[in-house]
TrEMBL record:
UniProt entry tagged with the keyword Disulfide bond: no
Native source organism of the sequence: Stutzerimonas stutzeri KOS6
GO MF: hydrolase activity
One matching Pfam family: YdjM
Top-rank lineage group of the source organism: Bacteria
Keywords from the UniProt entry: Hydrolase, Membrane, Transmembrane, Transmembrane helix
Name of the protein described by the UniProt record: Hydrolase
TM ranges: 58-77, 89-111, 123-151, 158-176
InterPro entries: Transcription_regulator, YdjM-like
Length: 347
C-alpha cells in the first residue's frame, strides 16, 4: 500500500493499544514504525528486476518482524521503561504495527514475501488497489482527530473504531474478488477455455470494478467485472507471445520474474528488444513494470545483463474517467484490445 496508508495504519494500531499512556506520541511512534519495512527500497540489488522482486522481501517477513519487535521491546524496556503498561503489551503493539504493514501489503497485487527466508511464491491476495480511499480515510480521520483532540476518554476509542471499519472494508474486498473470478469461470466453462493461471485484481482506487486475467498459452484473456453488471463478462483475447520466452531460458532475471509473478507475464518484440511485462499490476495497456531482457543481435537474442525498467505510462484522466463510468455501466465496453495494443503500438 501507499506510504500514507501504512503510516496512518501504524499510528492507529499503536494509538489503540498504547494511546491512553503515550498520548499523541503513540501516533508519531506508530507512524514511523509503520513505514519502517518499506525502507528496503533504498537497497540496490544490481538491476531493476532484482530491485522489484527483492522489495517486500526480508523486511516484510513475519519472522523478521517478530525479531525486530522483540529487539525494540527489549531496548525500550531497558532504556525507556514505562511501568504503566507491561512488556508483553508493548511487544504486542510493536509486533502488530509491523505485522499489519506486511499483511496489508499482501492484500495488494504486487507480492509480499511473508514467509521469507522460505523460497515460496510471494503472497499476493490482490483484493485491494495500492491506493484505496475507502480503506485509508477512516484511519486518517482517526489520526487527525487524535492529533487535534488527544487520546483521552472516549477519544481513545477512535483509532480502534477506525481499525474495525477499515478491516471490515478490507474483508469485503475478498468477496468482490470471489464474485469477479466466479463470473469469469462461468464464462470459461461455456466457452471451453482452459486456464494455466487466473489472476484478479481491483481497478484503480476502488473495489467495485475488477480486472480478471486468464493465461492460456500463447494468449491471455482479460475481462472487467463490476458488482453492478447484469450480463456475463466479455473475455477479450489478447496475444501473450509466450514462445519468445525460449530466448530467455538462461536469463536469471526472467526466471525470477516468472517466480515472482507466478508466470502472469506478457512478451513483446519491439525496436529490437525483447520486453517482458508483469500483467498483474496497473491497468490494461498501462503496466508499470516492463523490462527489456534481451536485444536482437543479427539472427539471435543477446541477454541484457543489467536490465532497466521502462518508463511507465500510467494513462491519463480521460482513461480514469472511462474506468469510473465502467463501474456503473457495462455497455459500451471499454476498448481493452486497443489499450493493450498501445503497449508497443499496433501489432
Amino acid at each position: 500500500m501507499d506510504s500514507i496508508t501504512q503510516a496512518v495504519l501504524g499510528a492507529s494500531v499503536q494509538a489503540a493499544l498504547l494511546g491512553r499512556w503515550q498520548g499523541r506520541k503513540a501516533l508519531l511512534y506508530g507512524a514511523l514504525l509503520g513505514t519502517l519495512p518499506d525502507l528496503d527500497v533504498v537497497i540496490d540489488y544490481g538491476d531493476a528486476v532484482s530491485n522489484m522482486t527483492y522489495h517486500r522481501g526480508f523486511s516484510h517477513s513475519l519472522l523478521v518482524v517478530s525479531l525486530v519487535a522483540g529487539l525494540l521491546t527489549w531496548l525500550a524496556r531497558r532504556w525507556r521503561p514505562d511501568p504503566r503498561y507491561s512488556g508483553r503489551r508493548l511487544f504486542l503493539t510493536l509486533w502488530l504495527v509491523l505485522a499489519t504493514h506486511a499483511l496489508l501489503d499482501a492484500f495488494t497485487s504486487f507480492g509480499t514475501q511473508l514467509l521469507w527466508p522460505l523460497h515460496m511464491t510471494p503472497v499476493a491476495w490482490s483484493s485491494i488497489f495500492i491506493i484505496d480511499p475507502l480503506y485509508s480515510v477512516p484511519l486518517l480521520l482517526a489520526v487527525l482527530a487524535g492529533l487535534l483532540f488527544g487520546l483521552q476518554g472516549r477519544l481513545a476509542r477512535w483509532p480502534l473504531l477506525a481499525l474495525l471499519v477499515s478491516s471490515l472494508y478490507l474483508g469485503s474486498t475478498l468477496a468482490g474478488k470471489q464474485m469477479a473470478e466466479q463470473r469469469v469461470r462461468d464464462v470459461m466453462v461455456r466457452e471451453g477455455i482452459q486456464a494455466e493461471h487466473l489472476f484478479s485484481t481491483p481497478t484503480p482506487f476502488n473495489s467495485l470494478l475488477w480486472r480478471v486475467i486468464v493465461v492460456d498459452g500463447e494468449f491471455y484473456h482479460e475481462a472487467l467485472v463490476s458488482w453492478l453488471d447484469d450480463m456475463p463478462p466479455e473475455l477479450v483475447r489478447l496475444p501473450r507471445d509466450s514462445h519468445l520466452a525460449a530466448a530467455l531460458q538462461d536469463s536469471p532475471q526472467h526466471a525470477r520474474l516468472r517466480w515472482f509473478t507466478d508466470d502472469v507475464l506478457r512478451y513483446d518484440e519491439s525496436a529490437g528488444l525483447l520486453l517482458v511485462t508483469d500483467l498483474r499490476l496497473g491497468m490494461t495497456g498501462f503496466h508499470p513494470f516492463r523490462f527489456p531482457l534481451a536485444e536482437r543481435a543479427e539472427d539471435s537474442w543477446q541477454l541484457i545483463d543489467r536490465p532497466e525498467r521502462l518508463p511507465a505510462d500510467r494513462g491519463d484522466l480521460d482513461r480514469l474517467l472511462q474506468i469510473w463510468k465502467r463501474i456503473w455501466h457495462q455497455y459500451p465496453p471499454l476498448p481493452l484490445a486497443a489499450w493493450a495494443a498501445e503497449l508497443d503500438g499496433e501489432r
